[in-house]
Each structure stands twice: as structure tokens, then as C-alpha cells.
Amino acid sequence: MDQNSIVLVVSVSILNDEEVLIIKENKPTAFDKWNFPSGRIEYGEDILNAARREVKEETGFDVKLNNTTGIYNFISSTNDQVILFHFTGEVTGGLLNLEEDEILDSKWIKLNDLMKFDNKEIREASVLKKIVDNLLKENLYSISIYSENLRY
Question: Within 13 Å and on the Cβ side, how many CA atoms surround 29?
């Protein structure tokens, strides 16, 4: 990837009671790092559909998206500008089936415990911890601000 590119990413915190699902990545730029299920938005893809697709691809779960904690704009460890759309969701179907090539492990963890992870264990730690802080403070917003693809 060219340096100084802009990358659009979706991320989903799958919540179950007081726990959230995290995955351990097996990607060259994030090997052995914990993260929420996430990935790039494909050209022409609706943001909400991208979020559901990424969760399904990485975990095997079908999810209902409930809220958003917001949009996060940052420079990544690979020096790309990332615009990350983060959502909360709940499992509605499917079975845990990790994407073998890209995901090493998964676990359910209390949000407070995730804040205690060492930054070296987490992908883009400052952003992930800001998301968790918003989740703990219940800074949640309606996903109705995201419309399905509009064609003019």
C-alpha cells in the first residue's frame, strides 16, 4: 500500500451481557494483536453491510448492529490515515468459526479488563481504548445516521 493513503474501516464490538468479543489477529501489520472484528470497507459497499460482512468473515457470527460509538480518525502504525466507523452489535446467528488465515484466537472479556491490557498487546491501542472508554461511559449513538447506499 502506498504511504499516506486514506483507509476506510469498520469495527464492531459484539456485546453479550457485560462481555465483548475480541479477536487475535494474524496479519503482517498486526500479528498477535487483540482487536475487535474489523476490516476495510469495499468500494461501493454500504458501511453497515461492511460491518456485518467483516464480523461474519472473521468470526462466523451474524450480528445485528445496535449503536455506534462514533467515527475515529487517526494515523495508523503503517502510516495510513484511517477513518474508522465503530459499531456495537449482538449475535443473532451463526457459530464461532474463526477465519483461519487472519485470526489466531478469540475470547469474551469484560470491557474493564480490556482496558488493563498492555498497549503492545492491542492493535492501535489508543483508538481501541478510546472506543472501550466510550462503551463504558455508554456514549452510544443511533446508527440511523448511516443510510443505505444512495445512488443519484
Answer: 8
pLDDT given at position 1: 43
CA torsion, points 122, 123, 128, 129, in degrees to nearest 10? 30
pLDDT of residue 100: 84
Series of mean pLDDT values for 10-residue runs along the chain (152 residues)? 79 96 93 96 95 97 97 94 98 94 95 94 96 96 78 52
Q: The C-alpha cell of 112 is what?
A: 474493564
Tell me if 33 is assigned to some domain: yes
Q: Residue 70's domain spans which residues?
A: 6-145
Residue 150 lies in a domain: no
What CATH code is carried by the domain that includes residue 119? 3.90.79.10
